[in-house]
Amino acid sequence: MRATEIDFLPVTMPPPAGADSPAGTANGTSNGTSNGTSNGTSNGTANGTSDGHAPPPRKPSMAVLREQGERLRGRITAGRKESVARQHALGKRTARERIEALLDEGSFVEIDMYRRHQAQGMRMGDNRPHTDGVVTGSGTIDGRRVFVYAQDFTIFGGSLGEAHAAKIHKVMDLALSTGSPVIGLIDSGGARIQEGVVSLAGYGGIFQRIVQASGVIPQISVVLGPCAGGAAYTVGLADFAFMVRDTAQLYLTGPDVVEAVSGQRVTHAELGGADVHGRRSGVATFVHDDEESCLLDVRYLVSLLPGNNLEPPPSWPATGATEDVRPALADIVPVEPNKPYDMRSVVAEIVDDGEFLEIHENWATNVICVLARIDGEVVGVVGNQPMVLAGVLDVDASQKAARFVRFCDAFGIPLVTLIDVPGFLPGTDQEHEGIIRHGAKLLYAYCEATVPRVHVVVRKAYGGAYIVMDSRSIGTDLSLAWPTNEIAVMGAEGAVNVIFRKELAASVDPAGLRAELVEEYVEQLVHPHYAAERGLVDDVIDPVLTRAAVARGLAMLRGKRKQAPQRKHGNVPL
Questions:
Q1: How far apart are CA 216 and CA 18, in angstroms?
Q2: How large a percentage of the chain has pLDDT more than 90?
Q3: Nearest Cα to 536, choosing from 469, 450, 462, 471?
Q4: How sure is the predictor about 492, in pLDDT bands with cuts at 50, 70 and 90?
Q5: 529, 530, 533, 401: which is closest to 470 by C-alpha?
Q6: DSSP string across 367-409
Q7: pLDDT tens digits, 452-489
Q8: Where are the domains of the chain?
Q9: Are 350 and 319 in contact (CB under 8 A)?
Q10: 529's torsion region: left (phi>0), alpha (psi -120 to 50) or beta?
Q11: By three-state DSSP, how is residue 522 classified?
């Protein structure tokens, strides 16, 4: 960022000690000149010591010190009026306004308010505002402790220098040591060019801490303005990322660099706007129209998460789910395997009060991932979405579900998987993009998970996709199925075409023969109790009892303990 672009906040220093006290004035008058004379006049005696040396200046009173401190704090927290007005004109709140909206009223305790940078070059020595462009501290959300840092675009464009980074390092260290979630409110022009390589080292320290805290405390990044260059990895490494339309910008290289290198002209929004990352790249977990709704959703997310990996997720009173009957579930899912329906409707009938928080709602929509409660306890739900691509698994869906499964496992959140999957998406594009590798991520995530795991085969479950969706063979604890379940290597028609290819080719009535063979295949290999007879399904349940069956299963598994084998770490197919 060029120096001309930086909005410096002039800081008025408190008056020198004793400047407004009578004693301080007297000690600075001509009367004090006699203090150094050899004969020690009466004036010298009055204003000096018996040996001719002047006494130390009288310290200001406590009242004066308190007043000076309050004035300084007031100037720091108020900020520069013109800069605050510009921030509001852009539709953005200030850093302190954001913290106030995020945390419980009156709970914020600020850390390092008086921190200032120590740089001297590039005209920085005369511009040393307090906070150095980031507000850090701790507060509560619904009474539960969190740590937060909010970058302040009104000071140095929120750019990160040595002192700025040190403040973030400190609050992240405190979050980890106390076992509390950390939330970053990002609004920054990136590394502070005037401070050189120490700015880059500051980002490195942040990334190192994010990785060390991964799986130990929840980490949330909220992009409320620009976030460019290496700073983007603060978002990429976080467990959850929020973005606000029109104001958030997130990319490694900006439009000018893209045009210089490729000749392609692109706007900030087209390159790294909220919708781009919410729909195409999958970087943004949640996208909102305004800061108010965004910060409210951050609070909602925190209410569903444990403080750290050693705490259970926050529970609410039981809701009687173990005895709950939901008649609507008998009508939502069509018996015909090729008819679409919205899996969200099934989820709403299973979870408490029909309320859930969907993760990556607009990305890889052929699979849904939600956080919700069943009988008052937090669960993670993964389900195929027949409304989109018939619910097949592809590259993006596999990555989305795998990361969600790993997060839930890291923080002790039980998993419920709703299966209605026809297979993996076929085609050269998928194969060339690495569907084998990406599908293996989801397979690895489920195989590695040690939390309680329950799955429900709602309708079809074909081939390798059935295995990957937390099947009995890879470790699910409780396998339930509806009477509509079709668990098989492939659908009946496809299987008949392969098995009886020669017979069908030689038949005078291939359509009639195919129908007969399909019926035979279904009766022998795909009937509702086929998998249950072989111990691969624990129970075939009435759909209306699904909520109760899942709740009872989770209650049964609540004390589950499973030790992973000793190793440094596995080798995830990244």
A1: 51
A2: 70
A3: 471
A4: confident
A5: 401
A6: EEEEEEEETTEEEEEEEE-TTTGGG-B-HHHHHHHHHHHHHHH
A7: 999 999 999 999 999 999 999 999 999 999 999 999 98
A8: 81-304, 321-485+528-557
A9: no
A10: alpha
A11: helix
Cα gap 156→41, rounded to integer Å: 56
For residue 251, give the nearest of 228, 234, 230 by alpha carbon. 228
475: left (phi over 0), alpha (psi -120 to 50) or beta: left
Report how far apart, in Å, the C-alpha atoms of 315 and of each of 162, 298, 450, 533 are: 41, 18, 20, 36
Asked if 437 and 365 touch (Cβ cutoff 8 Å), the reply is no
Instruction: Please check whether the two domains, 81-304 and 321-485+528-557, share a CATH topology.
Output: yes
Which residues on adjacent β-strands are paired with residue 348?
none
pTM score, two decimals?
A: 0.87
Q: Are 333 and 344 in contact (CB under 8 A)?
A: no
In this structure, the chain runs to a length of 574
Quote the DSSP letter at residue 31: G
Q: Which residues contact 331 (CB under 8 A, 6 or more apart)?
A: none
Report the catalytic residues.
229-230, 464-465
H-helix segments, 255-328: 255-262, 268-272, 274-275, 291-303
CATH number of the domain at 321-485+528-557, please? 3.90.226.10
> Which amino acid, one-letter code, is at 337?
P
Q: HSE of 240 in the Cβ direction (CA atoms, 13 Å)?
A: 33
CATH superfamily, domain at 81-304: 2-enoyl-CoA Hydratase; Chain A, domain 1 (3.90.226.10)
Residues 458/333, Cβ–Cβ less than 8 Å: yes
Q: Cβ of 79: how many Cβ atoms within 10 Å? A: 21
Helix pair angle (395-410, 435-448), 10° resolution? 20
Written as six digits, the tokens of 427 are: 């085609």
- Axis crossing angle, helix 546-557 with helix 343-350, rounded to the nearest 10: 60
